[in-house]
Amino acid sequence: MTVPKPPMRDALVAAAFRLFLERGYEQTTVDDIVALAGVGRRSFFRYFPSKEDVVFPDHERCLADMTEFLGRGGDEHDPVARVCDAARLVLRMYAENPTFSVQRYRLTKKVPGLRTYELSVVWRYERALAEYLRRRFAGQPDGTLRADVIAAAVVAAHNNGLRSWLRSDGESDASAEVDHALALVQRTFTPSAGPDPAEDVEDVVVLVSRRGAPMWRVVQEIEATLGHPPDRQN
Amino acid sequence: MTVPKPPMRDALVAAAFRLFLERGYEQTTVDDIVALAGVGRRSFFRYFPSKEDVVFPDHERCLADMTEFLGRGGDEHDPVARVCDAARLVLRMYAENPTFSVQRYRLTKKVPGLRTYELSVVWRYERALAEYLRRRFAGQPDGTLRADVIAAAVVAAHNNGLRSWLRSDGESDASAEVDHALALVQRTFTPSAGPDPAEDVEDVVVLVSRRGAPMWRVVQEIEATLGHPPDRQN
To answer: Residue ranges of the HTH tetR-type domain (chains A, B) (predicted)?
Structure first.
């Protein structure tokens, strides 16, 4: 019985990480990696444009998946819920391989160049979410502004949850961490949880009241807000 | 009468930008810059660690100003308003020199390395805002999560307004653009504009109603939401 060899791309990633952990990232060359993986330099550069890219081998695929997922989303999807689900695709990529993700997290914290590389990847995810939201909010007041703000909030929430999981060495529940964080963003930005800034706010009254408040006080507050009793107006 | 020479640091920035615009960023070396400015290489590196740093000569000072400004903020300041004001320090830096800011914006769009550099600067501003908010929200439920999300939202709103101004070639009103964008974030995250996620939401009823709705319908909706009429409960 023969054990199948891992695909060359996986072998290169495995060799690279073994060396990064043993010698450090800066001290490892592409020549070292290809020697350990038993392939030529040209094979390395067929899969990875640079040494940095081998640290993040799955982001291009994940970005493509995210763009495709958002492209499939029609008007039947709530736009904020849709971008939250798109962010969950990134989490899934990390959670599929906890050991690798935790090792990379430690490596990225130590190497400023990798941190910068990661920021540019995060920025591309954020742009993908923002562009989807800009399409969904097209023609609405402050459409691009709201798109940019919500995309940034979703990315920040996702990364907060993801980092909690990575700091737990992959021991905590990744999905629960990220779901909790994204739920806060959805509560904040979904119209049913408050007034939609895209609607004419002049037409809407928002009243926040303690659950135990007596009804007469609630009515009084509404009347005070409106400036006149609406049942006499109609 | 003698015209005073500009300080050496300003002369280096001016020489660098003249060459970047004439020849392109990649085609300009540090040697070209120091030759035009009439100083030695060591003078350049005394002010700027690398060629990239001369493109963004004021961010370090601005980051220090922001950190100092946030450090001075006590409990008397609304935390969200304070980070919005901190973001306005960045805008002021750009608006102080519109021609330079617009030139740099065009340059940064063309050179991927500068774009990456800028992302790491933006990330440092965002961390400064988030760290301030984490201190303010310390001990509150989801304090760090809310801090990260609000910091990201403030940066995204600021950058949306800033980019609008830069795309107008500095012709529009920079402060008005950014104030408008930050106002949306303040409305979204300031407790008086809606329920505070840090409070026990179980205790609060939010009702959104059309201004023209008759009072009996408003009361009916509140009762339906509560599951029982609150005036009989108390």
So the answer is: 6-66
Q: Fold for B8-53, please state it.
A: Arc Repressor Mutant, subunit A (1.10.10)
- Counting runs of H as helices and runs of E as strands, what totals does chain B give? 12, 1
Alpha-carbon radius of gyration of chain A:
24
Judged by a CB distance cut-off of 8 A, whether residue A38 touches chain B is no
pLDDT for the residue numbered B33: 96
Average pLDDT rounded to a whole number, residues B162-177: 95
- In CATH, the number for domain B56-193 is 1.10.357.10
- Cα B83–Cα B88–Cα B92 angle in degrees, nearest 5: 155
Residues 6 or more apart whose Cβ sits within 8 Å of residue B139: none
Asked if B200 has any chain A CB less than 8 Å from its own CB, the reply is: no
Q: Under a CB-based contact definition with an 8 Å cutoff, are residues B131 and B123 in contact?
A: no
Superfamily name with CATH number, domain A8-51:
Homeodomain-like (1.10.10.60)
Contact list, A208 vs chain B (CB under 8 Å) = 194-195, 204-206
Per-residue pLDDT tens over the stretch B135-153: 999 999 999 999 999 999 9
Q: B155, B152, B157: which is closest to B177 by C-alpha?
A: B157
- What is the distance in angstroms between the CA of the first residue and the CA of the last residue of chain B? 85
E runs forming strands in chain B: 204-210
Cβ neighbors of A24 (< 8 A, separation 6 or more) are none
Which residues of chain A are modeled with pLDDT < 70? 1-6, 191-234
Nearest to A229 among B145, B215, B219 (CB): B215
Q: What is the mean pLDDT of residues B93-112?
A: 93
Q: Where in chain A is the domain with CATH 1.10.357.10?
A: 56-191
pLDDT over 90 at B210, yes or no: no
